[in-house]
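## retry 2 of 3
previous attempt timed out at serialization; input unchanged, resubmitting
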Amino acid sequence: MADLPALLQSSMSAVEAAAGGKTVDAQLAEEIDRFREWIVADLPHDDITGRLKRRQYVIDRLKLDFSKDAARLAEQFATEDAEERFDAPTAGEWIRHNCKTSRSVAYDCINVGEQLVGLPQCEDALLAGEIGFAHLSVIARTSSALAKTTPASVFNEDDVLQHARESSAGRLWHYCLRLRHALDPEGVAHDQRVAVEERRLQFTVSEDGSVLISGQLDPIGGAALRTAIEPLAQPMGEGDDRPLDRRQGDALVELSLHSLDAGLVPQHASQRPHLQVTTTLQTLRGLPGSPAADMEFSTPISSVTVQRLACDGNIARVVFGPGSVVVDVGRAVRVVSGAARRALNARDQHCQWPGCERAAH
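## retry succeeded, writing output
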């Protein structure tokens, strides 16, 4: 591997020569393929871990060079005519579009490149293979955040680098967050306030009525949600082969139903919020030819779903006359009374709906 720097330089020169073109030419592709094989040529094919570590080292070296160039591009965007010359609002956006990467990766590389001037020991450690680019990224973000509010002398590169050598990038991130709080508690508090203000939750209804959920929670809000659904997301016995994401989805629904059943949600329009199903008697009985039932915030639901919901709900009778005129509205009646519920819990121990083994509660 003694010729690695020279070969790296040769390959990067070939990339620069082809930079003006829209696609990678054949000669450059051959150079890259040769380089890819050469970096692990001295390792046996079955030495998978050794080959992975070697390739990752090369990737980290390339990312370091990429970050330096990204920072240089960001400097050029400081000029007045940069947006017009590069046809992009920022260096990060140009990198995202033209280098086929994500926004977070683009701006992270720019930040690493900009912080390298103050992290010479960390750069040397990466070149020596003592830390990875992921470590350098965490250190650069910490250095950048502290530089905004604290003197440069406060950040101790030696201390952070030592922790980087001894821990994973994830553990280093936790250490750096604690370090930031020790050196700049107001800055950390500000970041957490901003995270709270950026909470969002969006529901998108697909054609079949399924609801796609996307959003973002701050660390405290996310921890609260995970703490609430964790007990409900546990496997229910040896026969429960649901994957974690399925169990967490079921737990979120169950948590919502618990909140509605217990009356924990504030009243709306003088009524306690609850799932309201409008169905015909024929649908409730599951008779052939009966129409699907209606439920707010949902597509029409089947008679089987109606029967499952009716197992433990209040039923109110509504009689319609000609022209859909309401003739009579009966009082809501609980399907299972409190005394009957206690007796059923003692007898059955868990839900008796086919396939459900939830404990009685």
